[in-house]
Amino acid sequence: HVQLVESGGGSVQTGGSLRLSCSVSVYTDNSLCMGWFRRTPGKEREGVTAMDSDGNISYSDSVKGRFTVSRDDAKNILYLQMNNLRPEDTAMYYCGSDCNTVQAASHDGIFGYVGQGTQVTVS
User: Fold this and answer.
1) Helix boundaries (H) for the chain
2) What does the alpha-carbon distance between residue 19 and residue 99 come to, in Å, rounded to a whole number?
3) N or C end: fewer C-beta atoms under 10 angstroms in the chain?
4) Spatial contact of 49 and 35, defined as CB atoms under 8 Å apart
């Protein structure tokens, strides 16, 4: 059973940075494609980014150039470095695994397994 636990959220000012981490309990074939999505009350789920074990990466247009996804397979951790944060980035951020393709997941934020989320607030 795959468990994902996010951490690193918080409150920052516009232009600030945060790094989110996602600890994965066990790497399986479902970990080949992993990424992040976010939710804001009253809005649809929004894909943020996804990467696969071959190093293919995709970002949503709204975060491209500001956010960077990476993974440390030795530690079973997925990261999301967020720079130049904007108020519109305020959301609950979720880590996910078992996505179909990085392109699809970075757009629709659909993953087979997801964590409990970590709140990011930019003011």
Assistant:
1) 102-108
2) 22
3) N
4) yes
State residue 26's pLDDT score.
72
Question: Which has the closest alpha carbon to 123: 32, 3, 14?
Answer: 14
Half-sphere exposure for 80 (CA within 13 Å, toward CB) = 32
Quick: pLDDT tens for 86-110: 999 999 999 999 999 999 999 999 9
Check: CB of residue 48 under 8 Å from CB of residue 56.
no
Are 82 and 101 a contacting pair, CB within 8 Å? no
- Main-chain dihedrals φ then ψ at residue 120, nearest 5 degrees: -120, 125
CA–CA distance, 55 with 84 (Å, rounded to integer): 24
Q: Which two tokens stand for residue 28?
A: 């399986």
User: Please, which residues bridge with residue 24 across strands?
Assistant: 4
